Amino acid sequence: MIVAGTPAELPPARRAATIGTFDGVHLGHRRVLDAVRAAGLRSTVITFDPHPRTFRGNRVELLATPERRLELLADAGIDDVLVLTFDADLAGLTPEAFVDSFLRPAGVEVVVEGEGFRFGHGRAGDLDLLARLGFDVRRVPLAESISSSHVRRLLAAGDVAAAAALLGRPAEVSGAVVLGDQRGGTLGFPTANLAVPSDLLVPKHGIYAGSALGHRAAVSIGTNPHYGGTERRVEAYLLDYEGDLYGQRLVVELWERLRDEAAFASEAELVGAIGEDVRRTRAARRPA
Q1: CATH says 2-140 is which class?
Q2: Span(s) in the chain for CATH 2.40.30.30
Q3: Which residues are bridge partners to 274 per DSSP?
Q4: What does the pLDDT read at residue 186?
């Protein structure tokens, strides 16, 4: 998959394209992406960084980092992605100027979007306008009850199973592995401590079963109340893994929420609880 920042960086081609943020690349997005690929031209996604709502001053807890979004689009079979910097200049473009600046120079002939799609300054452009401008517009029915906002609500409640049903894959949390308190190693459960980007959504605090790097993982999200912590930590114990993860970017799948985080009467009780978490992690099943 080719990733470009301007239309000139894309290989010349007749293109079928879709425009959007595609945060999380959920099943609703996949329906649109499948229709783009089915058009028979070079499949192209035109997306934005940062998220347009973030540019306008709103906080958006993203379901995936820009890097992970590109990986998911590649997994969906997309040929090319045009990543546009969403700034004041882009936000001020009329729909017609957006078309002349990006769609026509990229060779876009077919535009595939869900019903209700809007674009351009003041959201003044729609699919009817694109059709009048000469594009072959293909409308995809919206997937009922599937949206990035709905997935965010489910993850905020810790319902990773329901989120997976909308994503079509397990929910994830990711970040670079950094040095933590190193308590896990002394307890017999060495963990990878993730530095999660500040704009990435982190699910409800608790203990989860999941996986990373092909290994099952018991994952703690929270403040380590047993030790009186106040700072949120995301720590993953990779079962049967040996190796140095420091500095690596780790994508951790979350399969099942096992329990709330808790403080225990003794360290022995904590170790026993972690042992039970590990047992349940070994028995957990990956959601579809």
Answers
A1: alpha beta
A2: 161-283
A3: none
A4: 65
pLDDT in tens, 96-125: 999 999 999 999 999 999 988 999 999 999
Cβ contact 208:257 at 8 Å: yes
Please list the rounded mean pLDDT of every run of 10 residues in the chain (288 residues): 98 97 97 98 97 86 96 98 97 97 98 95 96 98 90 98 97 93 72 95 97 98 79 95 94 98 89 95 94
3-state secondary structure at position 115: coil
Tell me the C-alpha distance between 171 and 254, whole Å.
5
What secondary structure does DSSP assign to 125-158, as a single string?
B-HHHHHHTT-EEEEEPPPTT--HHHHHHHHHTT
Structure token digits, residue 23:
């945060």
- Interval 186-218: pLDDT, tens: 678 999 999 999 999 999 999 999 999 999 999
Looking at the domain covering 161-283, what would its CATH class be?
mainly beta
> What pLDDT is attached to residue 235?
96
Provide the 3-class DSSP secondary structure of residue 4.
strand
Domain with CATH 3.40.50.620 in the chain: 2-140
